[in-house]
Design goal:
With 255 residues, this protein is of the alpha/beta class. The chain contains 12 helices and 8 strands. An 8-stranded parallel beta barrel has the order 1-2-3-4-5-6-7-8, surrounded by 5 helices. The longest helix has 18 residues. It binds phosphoenolpyruvate.
Length: 255
C-alpha cells in the first residue's frame, strides 16, 4: 500500500451463523471496532442474517453486503435474491465470482457478467473474486487464468462502472487452507490485475482500482500482505467469524 486508495477489509461469513448469531457477531464487531483506523470495513453475512447485521451495525461505518445475487431484479426465480432486494435490506455491496460458487454452483463467466450488471443496476458495489487453482499455479498459467476471469466478468464495463468495482484476488489453494500466498506471490498477481485494468480502460481507472487479497489472511500475516504496493486490503473468510481476529486484521495485526 498505497497510493491514495483507501484500504478495504471485508469479512465473508460464508454459510455460518443463524440470524441471532449474526447479530451477536455484528455487535461484537461494533464494540471491537469502536475506534477504527482509516479503512473501509464490510461484512458479508448469509442472506438470513443481513437484516440483523444491518440493525446491529446501524450508526457505524461498517457496511453490510450480500454473498450472491440473481442477475434479474425479480420474477419467477425460486430460491434467488436480487440486487434490488439486497439494496432494500440495507446492503451496499455484493460478492460476485467467489471460487466456492464457481466450483460448487458451476457459475460461468457469462453468468458472472450478468450478476455484475445486476448488481450495478441495483446500485451495489461489486467485489469481484478471481484466482487460480493449485494445478493452474503449478502449470504456470496463473496470470492467464486470472486475466480471463476478469475479462469474462468485467471486460464489458465502462470505466465509470469500474468505479463501483473492487477486485479480490483469491488463489483457490489459499482459501480456507491455512496456506497463505506469500506477499510477493500476491503482489505479482495484483500488479498483473492493475496493468490489465490500465490496458482495458486507462491508467486513471487502474490507479483507482482497489484490489484485495484473500486466502487465509490472519492478524499474524496481514501486515506483510498490506505492505505490498498493489494490495489495497483483504477479503477474509474464517478469521472474520471472530471479532477479535477480524479487529486484528482491520488494524493490520496491531494498534
Ligand atoms: C474467502 O472466503 O474469501 C476466504 C479468503 O476465506 P479464508 O480467509 O478462510 O481463506
Amino acid at each position: 500500500m498505497m497510493s491514495g486508495r483507501r484500504p478495504l477489509i471485508a469479512g465473508n461469513w460464508k454459510m455460518n451463523g443463524k440470524p441471532l448469531e449474526g447479530a451477536s457477531l455484528a455487535r461484537e464487531l461494533r464494540s471491537a471496532l469502536q475506534d477504527p483506523p482509516a479503512v473501509d470495513i464490510m461484512v458479508f453475512p448469509p442472506f438470513l442474517s443481513i437484516n440483523t447485521a444491518v440493525e446491529a451495525l446501524k450508526g457505524t461505518d461498517i457496511t453490510v453486503g450480500g454473498q450472491d445475487l440473481h442477475p434479474e431484479a425479480g420474477g419467477a426465480f425460486t430460491g434467488n435474491v436480487s440486487g434490488e432486494m439486497l439494496k432494500a435490506a440495507g446492503c451496499k455491496a455484493v460478492l460476485v465470482g467467489h471460487s466456492e460458487r464457481r466450483t460448487y454452483e458451476k457459475e460461468s463467466g457469462e453468468l458472472l457478467a450478468a450478476k455484475v450488471a445486476g448488481a450495478l443496476r441495483a446500485g451495489l458495489q461489486v467485489i469481484f473474486c478471481c484466482g487460480e487453482t493449485s494445478d493452474e499455479r503449478d502449470a504456470a498459467v496463473t496470470q492467464q487464468v486470472v486475466v480471463s476471469q476478469l475479462n469474462d466478468g468485467l471486460g464489458d464495463l465502462r470505466a465509470t462502472e469500474m468505479e463501483q468495482v473492487v477486485v479480490a484476488y483469491e488463489p483457490v489453494w489459499a482459501i480456507g487452507t491455512g496456506r497463505v500466498a506469500s506477499p510477493e506471490q500476491a503482489q505479482e498477481v495484483h500488479a498483473t490485475i492493475r496493468s490489465w485494468a490500465a490496458k482495458t480502460w486507462d491508467s486513471g481507472s487502474a490507479r483507482a482500482l482497489r484490489i484485495l487479497y484473500g486466502g487465509s489472511v490472519k492478524p499474524t500475516n496481514v501486515a506483510g500482505i498490506m505492505a505490498q504496493p498493489d494490495i489495497d486490503g483483504a477479503l477474509v473468510g474464517g478469521a472474520s467469524l471472530n471479532a477479535d481476529s477480524f479487529q486484528g486484521i482491520v488494524c493490520y495485526g496491531g494498534r
